[in-house]
Amino acid sequence: MGTTWSVKLVAPRGADLHALHAGIQARLDDVVAQMSNWDAGSDLSRYNASDAGSWHALRADFFAVLSCALDIAHASGGAFDPTVGPLVDGWGFGPSGTSVECFSPDVARTQVQWRRVVLDRAARRVLQPGGTRLDLCAIAKGFAVDAVAAQLRALGVEAALVEVGGELYGYGRKPDDTPWRVIVEGWQGDESDASEPRVLALDGLAVATSGDRWHRREHEGRGISHTIDPRSGRPALDAPVAVTVAADDAMRADAWATGLTVLGTREGLQVARANGLAARFVDVDGVRVEERMTSAFEALLQAGVGLA
User: Which of 7, 43, 96, 102 is the least crowded, having the fewest Cβ atoms under 10 Å away?
Assistant: First the structure.
């Protein structure tokens, strides 16, 4: 999926670390084989290239991710849309290397509509209505984090911090009996800011951050965000610099971080509160930084500070 992974873990004494590493890589390779639009041979790529009216049986992982993606698309009013592939690719953030100058967002937007995806949940299959191109990059990396964490638990690893493409999940305690602590990402230059860093304790908790600090490109002399608004077909104009979501699983944290970024701070906060999400929004206007968060996120920050 064009990214990297890392795992910190507390292994049982005498554990074969080479075998653990190989097992993690194999689990991630299986996720890629199902859901990577960077791999022309993946299940997702074959679906995207298939004929209109064809049905496709889904493996368990793909089905779970697509089901969750459609649920969040509905809850976010389409701000998160798993059919956004033509727009991501067209704006130059996808695997095809398309030139932005040859791209018409208005044409591509006609192919982007999550409601066209017909998921037969009983038979675990999905219909290709014609021209639909799934892009699960904003949720599959989170799922991959959860999958690795579940595998490590099953192998008897009592504590681990799993990261894929910046999405994190931590569980258990380190040898000094403290939880995994991570600093919440913010804005360019925040490492020099005088205020206290925002720290979360991850013990059965996932965290994901989205925003235009990390992925931008130039178009017609101006920077454009990698966060595409599926509703307009264009880069999100009012996207916060960073949106962080903490949740019980990284799959939902990953997807919601993207959806709330598209919505922007004002509407995103409303949606986050309505859905009981722990979310933090950071906006930068010149040199002024504004941070807003839900009460659920504030509670997690306070819990992280209070832990030994």
Answer: 102
Please report which helix (H) or strand (E) contains residue 125, including its range.
strand 125-128
Nearest CA to 306 among 178, 158, 219? 178
What tokens appear for 300 in the block?
Answer: 């997690």
Give start and end residues of each alpha helix (H) in the chain. Answer: 17-35, 43-48, 60-75, 85-90, 105-109, 137-154, 250-274, 295-306
Give domain limits for the chain.
Answer: 168-306
Q: Provide the 3-class DSSP secondary structure of residue 101.
A: helix
Q: Which residues pair with 234 in a beta bridge?
A: 229
- Mind listing the pLDDT tens digit for each residue in 11-59? 888 889 999 999 999 999 999 999 999 899 999 999 999 999 999 999 9
**Residue 241 DSSP one-character state:** S
Specify the DSSP class assigned to residue 172.
S
Given a contact cutoff of 8 angstroms between Cβ atoms, the answer to whether 150 and 171 are in contact is no
Q: Enter the CATH code of domain 168-306.
A: 3.10.520.10
CA angle 184, 281, 268 (to 5 degrees): 135
Which residues are paired to 168 by β-bridges? 163, 207
For residue 12, give every residue at least 6 positions away whose Cβ sits within 8 Å of its Cβ, in sequence order, or none: 156, 157, 158
- Alpha carbons 252 and 69: distance in angstroms, whole number: 8
3-class secondary-structure state, position 273: helix
* pLDDT tens by residue, 207-237: 999 976 555 545 444 445 678 999 999 988 7
How far is residue 219 from each of residues 103, 225, 235, measured CA to CA in Å?
12, 10, 11
